[in-house]
Amino acid sequence: MHIDYDGEIPVEISARHVHLSQADQDALFGDGYEMKVMKSLSQTGQYAAEEKVTVVGPKGELECRVLGPCRKQTQVELAVSDGVRLGIMPTVRLSGDLAGSAGCSLVGPKGRVDLKEGVINDVRHLHISDKEAEEWKVKDGDVISARVDGETPVTFHAIRVRIHPSFRLNIHLDTDEGNAAALPKGGGIAKLLRERDDA
Ligand SMILES: [Zn+2]
Questions:
Q1: What confidence tens digit (pLDDT) does each residue in 27-79 have?
Q2: Under 8 Å between Cβ of 60 and 86
Q3: Gap from CA of 127 to ligand 1 centroid (Å)
Q4: How far is the centre of ligand 1, averaged over its atoms, from the C-alpha of 185 (Å)?
Q5: Separation of CA 167 and ligand 1 centre (Å)
């Protein structure tokens, strides 16, 4: 068997953040509050807000940036080291799959909400458009491996492929994963690992 490293995929690091439901946003910031957009994110339609909330766990608390627009259910995305500081072990999940995940409390300028669930460690993933997925020969839900070429390169396995026409080619890692490869905050480049049998 032979291993090839194929292509170049931009890597982005997602720091801890929270997506709020409209009801939780109203409770934390007040009814009808409008978030101030700090910057648009690479995946269409999403933005980082200037606002932050405080995530409270049994061992501590952390400031967490709000990402908009609102979602159906509040979702808190943490790196494992964030969870260690809070005393909450985030459940490794795909974004949006929250049933039975860990809980926490959130505090904003106008109030507090206690979440029974919604705290996850977003499984590392590749965003890719349908067209590019054909070129790269990957399917939605595939699990791939890629070598991240930071100062201390790391090969990550169990990267989930997520396909949508609006997606831009990108691997999303959390801060722990980026730090392991000594990547700068702005991210870097990964190469897809492909195994082939020697003829
Ligand atoms: Zn992502």
A1: 999 999 999 999 998 776 889 999 999 999 999 999 999 999 999 999 999 99
A2: yes
A3: 6
A4: 16
A5: 9
d(CA 5, CA 119): 34
Going from the Cα of 143 to the center of ligand 1, the distance in angstroms, rounded, reads 15
Dihedral sign for Cα atoms in the order 2, 3, 4, 6: positive
In the reported structure, the alpha carbon of residue 54 is separated from the centroid of ligand 1 by a whole-number distance in angstroms of 22
Question: pTM, whole model, 2 decimals?
Answer: 0.91
Q: Which residues surround ligand 1, an ion (CB under 5 A)?
A: 172
Give yes or no for a contact between 104 and 110, defined as CB atoms under 8 angstroms apart: no
Centre of ligand 1 from the C-alpha of residue 114, in Å: 25
pLDDT digit string (tens) for 136-159?
Answer: 999 999 999 999 998 899 999 999
Q: Measuring CA to CA, how many Å separate 75 from each of 45, 66, 112, 156? A: 17, 10, 15, 24
- Burial (CB count within 10 angstroms: exposed 0-12, middle 13-18, buried 19+), residue 187: buried
Contact 13, 170 (CB under 8 A): no
